[in-house]
Design a protein that fits this description.
32% helix, alpha+beta, 6 helices, L-methionine:thioredoxin-disulfide S-oxidoreductase activity, Peptide Methionine Sulfoxide Reductase, Chain A, 8 strands, six-stranded mixed beta sheet
Length: 174
């Protein structure tokens, strides 16, 4: 029996904080931190942080759609972000932290757009939903020390997660 494989790419602030929520789901094959959406091939972390490459930090999720759907991944994504903040996420500020769903098919665009519309109509947020939905661009994996950060540096990860967790409690866990 062969495994089906698809990919999803989400940007929602620091990629360190975007890995764990997906990594722990059934059907996830891998979650890799990296950079996408810019104009410089093979950027480094330092280049992306200089705000000159156009890239945003993102995660590329490889998953088995027979176990977890793309729609499920989009729902998990919303709960990791502030969809009303176009210029960063929580303590992470700047265009390299902007929230974007990068789609690689018409079907993904349809699912992400419908999900964003439902969220906008839900009344959950008093501000408009500003998360962009864009065509997938080349994805460049981040340096190895950024991969699986939550496992390699649990204390630092917990410190980084503080504001995100507070936001989740205020907006998602009502």
């Amino acid at each position: 029996m062969s495994q089906q494989v698809e990919t999803a790419i989400f940007a929602g602030g620091c990629f360190w904080c975007m890995v764990q929520p997906f990594d722990e789901q059934p059907g996830i094959i891998s979650v890799r931190s990296g950079y996408t959406g810019g104009h410089v091939p093979n950027p480094t972390y330092e280049q992306v942080c200089s705000h000159t490459t156009g890239h945003t930090e993102a995660v590329k999720i490889t998953f088995d759609p027979t176990i977890i759907s793309y729609a499920d991944l989009v729902e998990i994504y919303w709960h990791q972000t502030d969809p009303t903040d176009a210029m960063g996420q929580f303590q992470d500020r700047g265009d390299n932290y902007r929230p974007v769903i990068f789609v690689n098919s018409d079907e993904q665009r349809k699912i992400a757009t419908a999900s964003r519309q439902r969220l906008a109509e839900s009344g959950q947020f008093s501000e408009p939903i500003v998360t962009q939905i864009e065509d997938a661009k080349p994805f460049y994996e981040a340096e190895e020390y950024h991969q699986d950060f939550y496992k390699k540096n649990p204390a630092r990860f917990e410190a980084e997660e503080g504001l995100r967790n507070q936001f989740k409690k205020e907006h998602w866990e009502k």
